[in-house]
Specification:
By secondary structure, this protein is an alpha/beta fold. It has one domain: Double Stranded RNA Binding Domain (2-Layer Sandwich). It has three helices and eight strands. It has helices at residues 2-17, 48-64, 154-168, and strands spanning 22-25, 36-39, 68-69, 76-86, 92-102, 105-115, 123-133, 138-149. The chain has a six-stranded mixed beta sheet with strand order 1-8-7-4-2-3, covered by helices on one side. Strands 5-6 form a two-stranded antiparallel ribbon. A hairpin with a 4-residue loop joins β7 (123-133) and β8. α2 (48-64) crosses α3. Residues 1-18 form the signal peptide. InterPro entries: DUF4136. Keywords: Signal. This is DUF4136 domain-containing protein.
Length: 175
C-alpha cells in the first residue's frame, strides 16, 4: 500500500522540483493591446536545424495563443537566441548520518556515497525569446528556459517545442 502511494506521489514530486522558465518584462507596458506579430529573420547559426525548430515552435505557439502572424504592421517582433553547452556531469560525495532504536537497543549509522557519471555525454540547450515593441523598437518581455539532450532528431525536436511552449506560457505576463 505504501509503495503504491509512493508511486502515485512520485510524478507530483518530480514536477514540483522541475525548473520553471525565467521571465522579465516591463511592468508598465500594456500587453493587452498586442495582437499581431512578426518573427525577425533567423540570424546565421552554426546549428541551422535548431534555429529553424525554435523559430517554428515560436510561431506555432504564438498562433495557438490567438496572436496573428503578419509581415507588415505588427504590434510586436519576436527574436530568439540559443546556446548549446556540455551538460555538467553529476558527481559528488554525499554523507548521511542517522540513528534509531530496535527493541531495547539503540544504534547510529554513517554512510557515504560517491556519484559516478554513467551514460553518454549530454548537452544542454538554453533558449531565450525576446518580444520587442514595434514602434519604439524596445524590449518589453524576455523569457528563457533550457533542456538537456543526448541525440538530435525527433527527441530533440519535441524537447525544443516543449521548451518554447513553457517559455511562452508566461507571455503575455499576468498582472
Amino acid at each position: 500500500m505504501k509503495f503504491r502511494t509512493l508511486l502515485l506521489l512520485l510524478p507530483l514530486l518530480l514536477t514540483a522540483c522541475a525548473q520553471q522558465p525565467k521571465q522579465d518584462y516591463d511592468p508598465g507596458y500594456s500587453f493587452a493591446k498586442l495582437q499581431k506579430f512578426t518573427p525577425l529573420p533567423i540570424s546565421s547559426s552554426d546549428d541551422p536545424l535548431s534555429a529553424e525548430r525554435i523559430n517554428q515552435a515560436i510561431v506555432d505557439t504564438l498562433k495557438s495563443k490567438q496572436f496573428i502572424e503578419v509581415t507588415e504592421s505588427a504590434d510586436f517582433k519576436v527574436s530568439f537566441a540559443f546556446r548549446t553547452t556540455d551538460k555538467p556531469k553529476d558527481k559528488g560525495l554525499s554523507i548521511g548520518l542517522g540513528s534509531g532504536t530496535w527493541g531495547s537497543g539503540g544504534g547510529i549509522g554513517v554512510g557515504t556515497s560517491v556519484g559516478v557519471p554513467l551514460g553518454a555525454d549530454a548537452k544542454l540547450q538554453t533558449i531565450q525569446i525576446d518580444i520587442i515593441e514595434t514602434t519604439s523598437n524596445r524590449l518589453i518581455w524576455r523569457g528563457s528556459d533550457q533542456f538537456s539532450f543526448s541525440d538530435g532528431g525527433e527527441g530533440k525536436a519535441q524537447a525544443t517545442r516543449e521548451t518554447v511552449m513553457r517559455i511562452l506560457s508566461q507571455f503575455p505576463p499576468q498582472p
